[in-house]
Design a protein that fits this description.
- The protein has helices at 4-13, 19-26, 45-66, and strands at residues 30-34, 37-42, 73-78.
- A 3-stranded mixed beta sheet has the order 1-2-3, with helices on one face.
- With 99 residues, it is α+β, with helices and mostly antiparallel strands.
- It has a single domain (4-78), classed as GMP Synthetase, Chain A, domain 3.
- The protein contains 3 helices and 3 strands.
- Helix 1 packs across helix 3.
- The chain starts with a helix and ends in a 21-residue tail after the last strand.
- It is 40% helix and 17% strand.
Length: 99
């Protein structure tokens, strides 16, 4: 799941970053909006560290501007959003008719 705010932020960041940087560091992030915070979930500590060191200040400024001040906090964690409706395993097993 991705937030509309994060999509807008990515559009701005695309102008300043290479395709490789976007694919490696930003596109794997998952975004969650809540109250006054945008949380970005990184797939591992390397992505979290790079985004925190290289882009945290710029992303914070962007989300504050794009949300007109409604979202002013950025949190970067390692994790993954749970699926909204995880697929259910089929209870039926394939049965062969004896011949």
């Amino acid at each position: 799941m991705s937030s509309a705010l994060w999509e807008q932020c990515l559009s701005h960041l695309e102008n300043n970053l290479t395709a490789q940087q976007l694919n490696t560091w930003l596109f794997p992030l998952q975004a969650i909006e809540s109250a006054d915070t945008l949380t970005l979930l990184a797939p591992n500590t390397y992505v979290k560290a790079w985004v925190s060191e290289q882009l945290e200040a710029e992303i914070t400024t962007l989300i504050t501007q794009l949300s007109h001040g409604n979202i002013a906090r950025l949190k970067i964690d390692v994790g993954q959003q749970p699926a909204i409706n995880p697929p259910q395993a089929s209870e039926k097993t394939s049965e062969k008719t004896p011949t």
